[in-house]
Amino acid sequence: MKRVGILISGGGSNMVALAKDMVGDHPGRAKLVIANDPGAGGLLKANALRIPTAVVDHRDFPKDREGFEAELQVVLEEAGIEMIALAGFMRILTPGFTAKWAGRMLNIHPSLLPKYKGLQTHARALEAGDAQHGCSVHEVTADLDDGPILGQARMDVRAGDTPQSLAERLLPLEHQLYPAVLRRYLAGDRTPVMLEG
């Protein structure tokens, strides 16, 4: 059974979905939640789920991403973490860190990759007049939001949608997709998961 570390920056709703799925015959267990912000609301949710937590505050490492990641690596190693799930972790990781975790780190991104890497994905989908929007789970590589896609969930864009309404409707799909992909990935199955919402 793989020891999974979940990295967050905010409320941690995807972390909760992942952790609640990692029970029973699941090939992984949530063993640590790490936030880069001590005020991240997901830390309280992790405590409520009785998952150990840690904070590596990126503000303690101004202009030193390698130093931040070195501390992150220490915390992960001390907990015996074997797999990382990025769940709303808002830090860009260096090629050195991603290389150490190659094939052992997943991320969820709120767009139908390869469209709209980076931020403001909902607004960009609306500006482009897209008929569909969604989210993707991918392996993390050195390039931003660019690793092999392991799953996507799609939904129709409705007349009158705003970035906020898209985000709100997409979140439940994220909570279905990410646990399904992680479960399959840890079992050694790389077949993409495709959902429609």
From TrEMBL:
Highest taxon above the source species: Bacteria
UniProt record, GO biological process: 'de novo' IMP biosynthetic process
Domain Formyl transferase N-terminal: 2-182
Residues carrying the site annotation Raises pKa of active site His: 145
Keywords recorded for this protein, A-Z: Purine biosynthesis, Transferase
Pathway entry: Purine metabolism; IMP biosynthesis via de novo pathway; N(2)-formyl-N(1)-(5-phospho-D-ribosyl)glycinamide from N(1)-(5-phospho-D-ribosyl)glycinamide (10-formyl THF route): step 1/1
Record family assignment: Belongs to the GART family.
Keyword Transferase: yes
EC assignment: 2.1.2.2
Gene3D superfamilies: Formyl transferase, N-terminal domain
Molecular-function GO terms, alphabetical: phosphoribosylglycinamide formyltransferase activity
Residues that bind (6R)-10-formyltetrahydrofolate: 65, 90-93, 107
Database matches in InterPro entries: Formyl_transf_N, Formyl_transf_N_sf, GART, GART_AS
Record's catalysed reaction(s): N(1)-(5-phospho-beta-D-ribosyl)glycinamide + (6R)-10-formyltetrahydrofolate = N(2)-formyl-N(1)-(5-phospho-beta-D-ribosyl)glycinamide + (6S)-5,6,7,8-tetrahydrofolate + H(+)
Protein's recorded name: Phosphoribosylglycinamide formyltransferase
Residues the entry annotates as binding N(1)-(5-phospho-beta-D-ribosyl)glycinamide: 12-14
Function, as annotated: Catalyzes the transfer of a formyl group from 10-formyltetrahydrofolate to 5-phospho-ribosyl-glycinamide (GAR), producing 5-phospho-ribosyl-N-formylglycinamide (FGAR) and tetrahydrofolate.
Catalytic site positions: 109
A GO cellular component annotation in the UniProt record: cytosol
